[in-house]
Design brief:
The complex is a heterodimer.
Chain A lengths: L2 H14 L1 H11 L3 H19 L8 H18 L27 H12 L2 H11 L4 H8 L3 H18 L7
Helix pairs in contact in A: 2-3, 2-4, 2-6, 3-4, 4-6, 6-8, 7-8
Chain B lengths: L2 H18 L4 H9 L5 H29 L4 H29 L7 H29 L2 H12 L3 H5 L1 H25 L7 H11 L1 H18 L4
Helix pairs in contact in B: 3-4, 4-5, 4-6, 5-8, 5-10, 8-9
Chain lengths: 168, 225
């Protein structure tokens, strides 16, 4: 595939799966600037690896792997970052901050995710997005049994922490 | 609250996201082309730069040693510097090799382990370079630089006693630097780079990295108990 074709295909694929970018950035960063930094880093890494994408797995699986790997590294790094800014009004992901549109339950869920460690954040995001245990195991690189154990623990943790809050 | 119940709400919200999120195409193109921004690229560039400078210094020192082979008082400090530069160079090459192996489209647990191992290596190298540097940067460097660039004999100008004292001070700085970084590291400067350096010298970042490696191992190996 020629470079302009490759770029076009890449942009279309990312456009179709922009929700992944949005959800990962939201789960790993609390403020808008960090989300923008992370979105840009993920985008760069996706493009860098896109030439090697052979279609053996779904684009969404591949995109999740890269986005989560970059997000976990980003979450753990302390270095200064330089952001690509064209103007204050421009952001890579336009709706990142519109959390007021979310229903109460989803907001509570976001709070629960925010408190988790970076690895469990990845697990719960993949689970909530409807991935099977096998798919989660492939993305995270652990066994299916291990995924089942961890998801079960997360469910219990959620029940315990929110036992006092109204039932959904 | 039940996670499976919330999953339905989450997916319902997810369906609406396509309408609410706007991906800025102009920034998308700019972000994917802007390679210098990537932390790993930056790290790789800095390590390569350090290695290139190290190679140049290695050649200069080699020529100095060759020219002063018959004068151990000049050749020996140059050899000490040479060993330090060779060790730094080897460390840089090892870091570059590790950085090259990191492929973000591989499974998360494996890649995070690689990244954290690279972080541990980088912290060890920073600690080692800063601390042993106190011995080689001052006295041996002074002797070699004065002789090499200005043909001045540091032993005659400063006297052996002063040079020995300088070396002793360099050695004494090592435990002092560790103590200062542990005691005052968090208060020293607002620069993130300085703060990170202090935390690395104090060993805090190393503890965090080794803790995360242990968490990763536990995360990978855990099964239903």
């Amino acid at each position: 595939m020629t470079t302009p074709n490759l770029q076009g295909t890449f942009q279309n694929e990312v456009e179709q799966h922009k929700k992944i970018l949005y959800k990962v950035c939201n789960a790993y960063c609390r403020d808008r600037d960090s989300r923008e930094d992370l979105a840009q880093e993920i985008m760069f890494q996706l493009w860098r690896s896109y030439g090697k994408f052979d279609g053996r797995c779904q684009f969404s699986t591949w995109m999740y792997r890269i986005a989560l790997n970059v997000a976990i590294s980003f979450y753990r790094s302390e270095g200064a970052r330089t952001r690509l800014v064209i103007s204050d009004e421009q952001h890579l992901l336009g709706a990142v901050d519109k959390e007021e549109r979310q229903p109460e339950e989803v907001r509570v869920l976001h709070e629960f995710i925010a408190e988790l460690d970076p690895l469990c954040k990845a697990l719960i995001l993949l689970y909530l997005d409807g991935n099977t245990y096998q798919e989660i195991a492939d993305i995270v690189g652990i066994t299916e049994t291990n995924v089942a154990t961890k998801i079960s623990r997360l469910k219990n943790k959620m029940k315990q922490e929110f036992s006092g809050i109204k039932q959904v | 609250m039940d996670l499976d119940g919330l999953k339905e709400k989450w997916l319902e919200q997810d369906r609406k996201l396509d309408e609410t999120i706007r991906l800025n195409r102009q920034l998308l193109i700019a972000a994917k082309m802007n390679g210098v921004r990537s932390p790993l690229q930056r790290f790789f560039f800095l390590v390569s730069l350090g290695a290139s400078i190290g190679l140049i210094i290695l050649v200069i020192l080699g020529r100095f040693i060759h020219a002063h082979w018959a004068e151990p008082r000049f050749a020996l400090p140059a050899m000490v510097l040479q060993v330090w530069v060779i060790a730094s160079l080897a460390a840089s090459i090892r870091q570059m090799a590790m950085a090259l192996q990191i492929d973000y489209d591989k499974p998360i647990a494996a890649i995070q382990k690689q990244i954290e191992s690279l972080r541990v290596l980088r912290i060890r190298i920073t600690q080692w370079a800063l601390l042993t540097g106190q011995v080689v940067w001052w006295t041996p460097f002074l002797i070699v630089a004065l002789k090499g660039f200005w043909y001045v004999d540091a032993y005659q100008v400063f006297g052996t006693a002063l040079l020995s004292a300088n070396l002793a001070v360099g050695l004494a700085i090592i435990p002092l630097a560790i103590w200062v970084s542990k005691r005052f590291g968090d208060r020293m400067g607002r620069s993130p780079v300085m703060r990170r350096l202090m935390r690395e010298l104090a060993g805090y970042n190393m503890n965090a990295a080794t803790d995360f490696l242990a968490t990763l191992s536990k995360f990978e190996n855990e099964t239903r108990d």
